[in-house]
Amino acid sequence: MVRYLALRIVQAIVVAFLISLATFFLLFVAGNPVHLMVGEGATTGQIAQLSHQLGLDRPILARYIRFVAGMLAGNFGESLFMRGQPALGAVLARVPATLELGAAALFSTLLLAFILGIAAAVKRNGPFDHAVLFGAALAQGVPSFWFGIALIMLFSVRLHWLPFAGMGTWRHLMMPCATLDLYLLPTFVRLVRSRFIDVLREDYIRTARAKGLAETRVYVRHALRNASAPIIAALGLQSGHFFGGVVVVETIFGWPGAASLIVGSVAQFDYPVVQAGVIVVALMIALSNLLADTALALSDPRVRYASSE
After folding, report:
1. What percent of the chain has pLDDT over 70?
2. CA 6 to CA 181: how far, in whole Å?
3. 124 in Cβ contact with 199 (< 8 Å)
4. What domains, with CATH codes, occur in the chain?
5. Residue 155: pLDDT band by 50, 70, 90 thresholds?
């Protein structure tokens, strides 16, 4: 188990390093933030002076070495547009809001996925099963940004029931969470349904029923536990996809999280904040994958054995 976790940690570090490399060079070719900072009326000398102060006139290799050294020390420099504020501190201050939204959406998604998926599997080929599959296919075809805007128009603009932006209460959380649920739910509903159908065909389920166990106990104690491994694995695989949905939702609803900060910083060419944000997000995704792999290894010993071969 220790070797398994050590291998996953090394992989996460390598992935974070490669992402830092890609982010740095993509920002390098994207544009120069000095032109945005000095305005249109700036002279060539003013632009050159500010570029020198920020170190943007150095060779790209020297700038990357400086970036890596700062990253290893946890220092990404100061934000170019939030003067005096460390870039990493600005990102970390927004992370709790992103985690709050992500945790609420993930919990509600899994809860709905298990309820709908198990019910559809138990009533396979019945009206409810067909309704669930049709709803999942329909939901997957609906763009999340369109759904979020539709929720704002209905519940904020027309009915005045929910606030359309910001955070603070459970009412602020409802529409962003519902939008993320629509983004994630179709995949997990189909996964839970298909896995549960496979498990219900196993011999140990027939044996449990032959012993006279109640159907609820068969589902919860035997089927659910053995059907959970692929779902745990899917949580890790979907972490990057999940953050893509968080970016859209935070932008639409003005949710003050790390994702919306990164999007705004990209538009301003705020290199330090974008670099710090991407690294933090990469580490969060790597950590979620590590947690999913650990949970999978604990629930299914065959994973540990396979990884050690």
Report:
1. 86
2. 33
3. no
4. 87-307 (1.10.3720.10)
5. very high
pLDDT tens for each residue of 248-307: 899 899 889 988 898 888 877 788 888 888 888 888 887 877 777 777 666 665 555 444
Q: What is the pTM of this model?
A: 0.78
The answer to whether the CB of 176 falls within 8 A of the CB of 148 is yes
Scored b (16 or more CB within 10 A) or e, 176-201 reads bbbbbbbbbbbbbbbbbbebbbebbe
Total residues found in the chain within this entry: 309
Which tokens in the block code for residue 47? Answer: 């632009």
- Which alpha helices (DSSP H) does the chain contain, by range? 2-30, 34-38, 44-54, 60-72, 87-122, 127-140, 144-151, 170-200, 203-210, 215-217, 224-237, 239-253, 258-268, 271-299, 301-307
Rounded-to-integer distance, Cα 53 and Cα 256, Å: 30
